[in-house]
Amino acid sequence: MSCRSFERRIALWVGGDLEPARAAAVERHLEGCAGCRDRAETMRRSLAALRALDARACEGLDGVRLRPLAPRVGRRRRLAAPLAVATAVTAAVLVSAVVVALLDRRPSPARPEPVRVARLSAPAARPAEPVLRRPGTGGPRVVPPPLPSPAVVAPEGVAAVAPGLDRTPESAPAAAQAASYTIKVLTEDPDIVIYWVVDPKGARYEPQDT
Amino acid sequence: MATVALMGWRETAPGTAAALLRSAQEGDEAAFAELVALTERPVLRLAARVLDDREDARDAAQEVFVRLHRHLHRLDPGRDPMPWLYRVTVNLCRTALRARRRQPLFVELAQETPGRTPVQAPSQERGLSAQDARRLLARALSSLSVKERIVVVLRELEGLDTEAIAGVMGCRRGTVRTHLCRGRMKLRRALEGGVR
Q1: Burial (0-12, 13-18, 19+ Cβ within 10 Å), A11
Q2: Cβ-based contacts of B188 with chain A (< 8 Å)
Q3: How far apart are CA B187 and CA B177, in angstroms?
């Protein structure tokens, strides 16, 4: 065998990892080969250097201790799933309760004021033909304006007002005063009709002839 | 699993470890803690030698004992748990080394040494600091493949025989010898200039 083929065996021989028969063959070769003896010695020294470096590098390593968590970690992992589920459910319930409470406290958006209805007192009895005549003459016949129904539903924020009828002050809010009304007066002459317009601020217009 | 005789596990008595394992399997947490205290040094040292990084080694060793607790009832109560611990340690280290290779492995060393730099002879290493020794050791081992590195560490530094290494690595003795032979030859070439 050549020296090259012995190189692999020498690498095992220096560590005592060859079977006795092969080890004996290597030893016989080394007795007669200076080059392989040198190679074997170099390999032995390199392994010694490796061990020496390792001994130096491992200084202080024995003082390093692991965290005593190993048994607890396993237990935690077993309990992790149920605990996580319980925590998630509790958190969901709490969040839902808070959200519901906040929504309940929030004012409803743009809720209209309740419609205020002016209760108007209608006259108890009404003459069948309320004809007014000028005294002493057969003056024009005055017909009062048609009365609204006793209960009038006013538009939002405005109370209905009817002329000549009593109304309670509290049933007429300020906005109601913005609505004007007109009194129509009929005369005996069908060509003459008198309109009496009442403005919201109480100013009166003069009757106008049409 | 092959029955292995761990030469490197000189500090712990296999009978004691097996008894502690049995107690831990019966629910004795104190016995488990004692088992960890008994075996953490060789596990940590092996991880540090293979990974050449104490923080990574500590993480790997921590994971080894987390797995021990997780798979406690799968272990044979009559057997020494040390081979199992070594195998898990080696597997975790191989995974870590593969991840490092993707990053790549020993970037610092590659930047430091464009060529081969011989390591000092054993007589000179006594004057080295521990940090320098770790750096030189890493440089010497960086020329080996992952399997060669693990086999050399288990054989030369942990003191396991080839049969035990085969049990830990999950391969045949011939494969172990092949890795060992190649690793030693590479080491000799890496250290050649400094040991003459």
Answers
A1: buried
A2: 11, 39, 42-43, 46
A3: 15
- As beta bridge partners, residue A183 has A196
pTM for this model (two decimals):
0.56
Interface ipTM: 0.75
Distance (Å) from the C-alpha of residue A32 to the closest C-alpha of chain B? 21
Per CB-CB distance under 8 Å, the chain B contacts of A11 are 180-181, 184-185, 188
Q: How far apart are CA B26 and CA B44, in angstroms?
A: 26
Q: What angle do CA B109, A45, A47 make, to 5 degrees?
A: 60
Q: Which residues of B124-163 are buried (b: 16+ CB within 10 A; e: fewer)?
A: ebeebeeeebbbbbbbbbbbbebbbbbbbbbbbbbebbbe
CB contacts of A65 in chain B (<8 Å) are 40
The one-letter amino acid at A198: V
Distance CA B84, CA A164 (A): 109
pLDDT tens column, B35-82 = 998 888 889 989 988 888 888 898 999 999 999 999 998 998 878 898
